[in-house]
Amino acid sequence: MEAYLTQDQVDWLWQVRAAAVARRLEHVQSAVVRLALDELAARMSPEEVAEALAAQERPATGQARGRRR
């Protein structure tokens, strides 16, 4: 599975990792994703998540859409 994160999200994940290292926790990135998905699932239905995603403006990735011809 791939996830495309913003720089702010990556920076925050590094802060979480640093806090976890102090507690000798391992595999923090995967644990953060699982925790976030569990929290999201408790708050929203799959349909609500899809609706919220559709309402968001897509960030520019710098990549062209579609396959090159």
From TrEMBL:
This is Uncharacterized protein. The lineage of its organism: Bacteria, Bacillati, Actinomycetota, Actinomycetes, Streptosporangiales. It comes from the Bacteria.
